[in-house]
Protein: CKLF factor
Amino acid sequence: LDRAFPRSPRGALHIARALLGLVTCLCFAASGAHEAYTALAGLETGITALFLLLYLLRLDARMRCLFWPLADILNSVISALFLLVVCLFAIIVKTNKGTLAGGVLGLILLVLCVVNVVLLGKKISLDRPRGRNAPAR
Structure:
């Protein structure tokens, strides 16, 4: 268990994304918005929680079959694109105040996704060796 991860900037960002995604999902569900809005917010919450568990339990170090930071970047980019479209539709249509609140919270979630991409982009470099088995330069 990595006890320092929740206090790190990336850990706090993942926690904030999961909580904000949950609140966005609840806003969409309570307002009776289109099911696609609720499904997108729910999927974002679930996938972010899985990445949080992956890093918290240090499973990324055990499962080396995938380059997890790059998968996290791809998830954040795809989530940001979907959130942009869905939340703009929710704000434009704004059938009620719950849908409007969910759309605004979704746009804040989009900003957190972009911040995650920037933080992970600074952390990784594709030309740098990863792991201890890579030869030293």
Notes: The chain has two domains: 1-65, 68-127.
